[in-house]
């Protein structure tokens, strides 16, 4: 029988606690308490996970750069590798050409790194000159005063009795190239001669010369006359001549293009003419359907004068240009020309190294200052400093 409970309340509480401890010490209760503890552990409130540290600025920048590089590689792969591999060759070429600019197209179709383009176009209009003569002047007009070292370009057309009677020069050179007919030249030093179709006279006036230029035959006499400046150190040299007959002018022919080389070099052929001011001067004739790629020294000024026919100059997509036009070329290392017409194209290509000196011109005198021009006029008037024979000489054609 169970023991009796003490009557004292405190004694009864102590006895009750001792019994509770004994019960709780039993293996049954121990395992139960453990299960309760585990259950309580599973129902514990969640603890917030520790916050991650924000990456440093350098790490963020590195990640962004890496992502950008990956995107760039993807773009390169899709736009360059896939079209090359998947598309036929002709499809790929047409795609790339359609997206390129006209300047790139021109560069791709010529052998030049910097093909020269036409930067100025000028129609040479007729004007009176000399005595009853008519010229088409391009360089030397107010629209194009000069193109260093070139001072003037005239396409002349003269019939008797018109011409260019006695007149002086100082400080430059004249190059007369006969296109048709003949011209007779004589000067106060006793030099006299006639140049005919295809002939060239390269005259260095230097410190001074007085001469006449008159038609030598019947009908119309045609040609080109170019004035080339002399540097200050050469302006007062003694006059001299270089004359070449048509048969002696260097020639070359390649792929439907013929050239007469008055000065300089073309197609590996060089002219024997000596130029004090470095110059190239060529007469090209292009058959229909032909094209030309002529090197021009970088840094030189250059122009084209169209004698006959029409052609495309500088860029293949440019509009064709016809006869009597002067085309000033921009910087670069060469000129490309296409004859897309059904007739031959003939033009002169001229280039020269700029002198970079002041140009003061008064009629037939070209010097570096107003004082030098005044001196040239005084020398001619009084017959001194190169003009000693001027006051006593008259040409036979006068």
TrEMBL record:
Compositional bias (Low complexity): 91-109
Segments traversing the membrane: 65-87
Keyword match DNA repair: no
Keyword annotations from UniProtKB, A to Z: Membrane, Nucleus, Transmembrane, Transmembrane helix
Domain of life: Eukaryota
Localization terms from the record: Nucleus
Domain Pirin C-terminal, first and last residues per copy: 281-386
Lineage: Eukaryota, Viridiplantae, Streptophyta, Embryophyta, Tracheophyta
Region (Disordered): 91-112
Coiled-coil residue spans: none
Protein family (similarity comment): Belongs to the pirin family.
GO CC entries: nucleus
PANTHER family: PIRIN (PTHR13903:SF8), PIRIN-RELATED (PTHR13903)
Protein's name according to its UniProt entry: Pirin-like protein
Domain spans labelled Pirin N-terminal: 134-228
